[in-house]
Amino acid sequence: MFTTPLVIATLMAATLGAVIGFLINHGAMRPVITGLRDELADAVWQLTHDPLTGLHNRTGLRAIHTANAASAEPQHIVAMLIDLDLFKEVNDAHSHNAGDDLLKATADRIRELAELYGGHAARLSGDEFAAIMPLGRTRLAGMAEHFTDVIAEPVEVRADNGPVTVTITASLGVAIATSTDLLDGVALHHADMAMYHAKQQGGNRHVLHQPGMTMPSHRPRRGPRLRDRRRSQNGNGA
Fold this sequence. Notes:
The protein is 51% helix and 20% strand. The chain has helices at residues 5-25, 30-48, 58-71, 87-94, 96-116, 140-151, 183-200, 226-233, and strands at 76-85, 120-125, 128-134, 155-159, 162-166, 169-178, 205-208. Helix 7 links the parallel strand 6 (169-178) and strand 7 (205-208). Residues 75-211 form the GGDEF domain. It comes from Actinoplanes regularis.
């Protein structure tokens, strides 16, 4: 069994919970208890969320997926991987502040859409996002088009010379999995393959993963920004 940051946080929570219970039973000061609870909540939040956008990070999304799989009968879910098209050009043209504004605005839109369909969203790294949602009776094409349309709406960001309105599109990979499938190894892996096909076809579209699908022979280059990689190496990234 691997010891992940989330497992460590869970063990910390259990230990501190016992300590807090002891203090309560022995009439300790409430400010001490409140402080411990706040510090624990903040530590868990930092482990499971992206600091820039407030979305879940990969660890947080894994925790949600694992909890859902354990708490209900197996069901079909939709895994969606979202990669912004030409984000680097917007970031380079209008400054890092503008790029951060765009990421935060896009994250808010993806969060609202994922919640609309009963699911959860995450920022995985750089300009790459993910969402997992129950399949239910949702029409996949309609859901994916809803995401691409909303993401492509104009956003006002802070440029070096003042506010500027920009438009960004996204390539979406969509996969159907079961709630008991591995998140990274199956659900997001299949969605990632489909996303690369959407990217190769010009972006601003979605592709549904099909059985037997493989990665395109020539993948468009993409990846996190340099400072996102540095944050990750320092332990502060998504």
